[in-house]
Amino acid sequence: MNQEMKNLCKWIINTAEKNGAKECKATLAVARNVEIRYRQHKPEIIKESTTQNLSLDIYVNGKYSSQNTPDLRKKSLGDFISKTIKNTNYLESDPYRYLPDPEYYIGRSDVDLKISDPEYPNLTAGQRHYLAKDIEDACIEKGDDRLISVEAEFNDRYTEIYILSNNGFEGESEGTRFGTEVYLTIQDEGNRKSEGFLIISSRILNEFPGAEEIAEIIVRDAYQQLGSKKINTEILPVIIQNRNTERILYGLLAAMDGRNLQQKSSFLLDKKNQIIGNNLLTLIDNPLIISGLGSNLFDSDGFPCKERIMIDNGILRDYYINWYYSRKLDCEPTTGSSTNLIIPPGEKSVEEIIKDLGRGILITGIIGGNSNPTTGDFSLGIFGQLFDHGKTIQSIAEMNIADNHLQFWNKLIDIGNDPWKYSNCQLPSLVFKDIVISGL
Question: Domain 120-161+171-224 sits in which CATH superfamily?
Fold first, then answer.
């Protein structure tokens, strides 16, 4: 971030102190977003926006508030700061709300995470159009006369963030993110339609998959769903495809959150260093992956980011506890949220696993569902393929799986060798035994 904006941030901190803020933190963020969507060989949506925002955290007389404004003119900011402090005085006091001890800021890595693509300034409007158009064209080419429509979007985002507090924290971050969202609609039997949907993201544009690879994935998955039907309720092994494992995992992560622990609404309360899953399950949170979509050098409290083993061979080793909830829980803070999530891959491909598994279901999509962080109960709508000894029998849809996380993760029996790299959740396909598949 340029020096002018940094100086403005320092002025904001000084002004807040002069107006009576004992502690304060200012976050300046600037972002540029571009979105181009093609449909029927024509641009359907073209959007570009640039935003700027100040987030100001104020601590005064044991009270706390956080306010935002996009108006960064000094005259307007002066009024904004004084009103924010005045309004904070009307709030209830909270003895747990104060800035962290500065000793927690020590130890930040100086590694270059390469989360900002140096070629981003050279990306032209024409290139953005071609990237979206090429994906649509590749999908149409791989389809047939049953293909009704393709919507292909290319989007990119550039962000700069500068954070300053009056107790010694200073941090800045610059990052890029490139993404595509692709939707396919295919005519199925009768009036039914099969749909495909794919999201892919990357920090660096030249690490982004080509149009042919993207089309291959989504067209294959969408056409595999043609003729989907329900089957009778069965207890079967299931393989959750790599792109869908995060939907299951986030139900587990919610119970590891400091707020839920403090509110006693977590099924993992008092489970630290206890077995919560099969010994195949290891979950690593690594914010220092080069060009990782969740990578950063510091977290929302300003603490240095570091790799953490959250679950070690089925044993829960850590929670996500930020500074505020660590005060309420009377424990040491860890970090407030997940970054890059990794489950170490296995040795076999999904195709090899299917051959050895007998009769089972490959889950290629999850629709809706819910997960209760207090009890661990969850239910998800699924679709995919029913297989038997390596051969696909039929596509299935409108089915459900329901289980409890404390039992479900103990049913893990194998892990694929296919981590999905176009997300901050770099997770492989997971194999579970004895899952109730609810259908007819």
Answer: PmbA/TldD superfamily (3.30.2290.10)
